Structure formats: C-alpha cells, structure tokens
Amino acid sequence: MEFGEKLHRLRKDMKMSQQELAEAVGLTKRTISAYESGASLPKRPSIYKTLASVLAVDPRYLQPGYDDYVEQVGSNYGSKTQQQIRKILAEARVMFANHELTQEEEIEFLMHFKQLYLEARRRGFIKPSAHA
Description:
Among the domains are: 3-62, 434 Repressor (Amino-terminal Domain), CATH 1.10.260.40; 101-132. Helix 1 (3-13) packs across helix 3 (29-37) and helix 6 (69-77) packs antiparallel against helix 7 (79-95). The mean pLDDT is 80. 67% of the residues lie in helices and 0% in strands. It has 132 residues and is mainly alpha-helical. It has helices at 3-13, 18-25, 29-37, 45-55, 59-62, 69-77, 79-95, 103-122. The longest helix has 20 residues, at 103-122.
C-alpha cells in the first residue's frame, strides 16, 4: 500500500476531513489532497512524524518502503485474517487517538489482548489456523 492510500485510510479511520487533518498538522488541505492522491510526498521526515502522531501510528508505517504488516498477514494467513487485523488496528487507533502510550502501557495492552485471544480460542470462539 502506498503512502497516499495509507494516509487516506488512517484519516478516514479517525473520522477526520482533509481540512481537519491539515489544520492538526500545520499543512494545507491542498497538500493533504496531493499526498492522498499520490501527486506528492512529504519532503521532510518531520512531516511523517507529525502526521503519524496525529493519526496514532508509528512514523515508519507512513514512510515509503516500510514493510506493511497487514499486507504480510494477508499473504500469510488469508484475506479473512487480514480484514480482522485491519478492523482491530483501526479500532485501536481510534481508542488511543491523541494519547501516546508509554512502553509499559503498550506491553500491558498487548499482554491483555493476547490473554483475550487465548481465552477466546480456549472457549472455541476462535478456531486454530492451519498455520499455527
């Protein structure tokens, strides 16, 4: 997935207009539109960092060449799992919007998420994949 597509999806997940995103990061709506359409890319690394902060993602996710985890999940485990991961990540982005987790909070969140997943598998709500 290209930068513009990622930016568009993240902005929509956060339920922001191009104008709202532009104001939040100190750019123009025209610049955000150009980014989303693929007509241009940020020239300074600080722009990726600012966009990522507002959109609650790691700046490396937005930079060209970053290995897209969701696409890899789709390749390895199929489109259904890929759709589930997209939904989980979108909900997590909204849940943690405007709040940067400390490393301890991030680890705690992931541990709780893993416990919920394992409990769901134990109760039979989630079937083990053929890849497990």
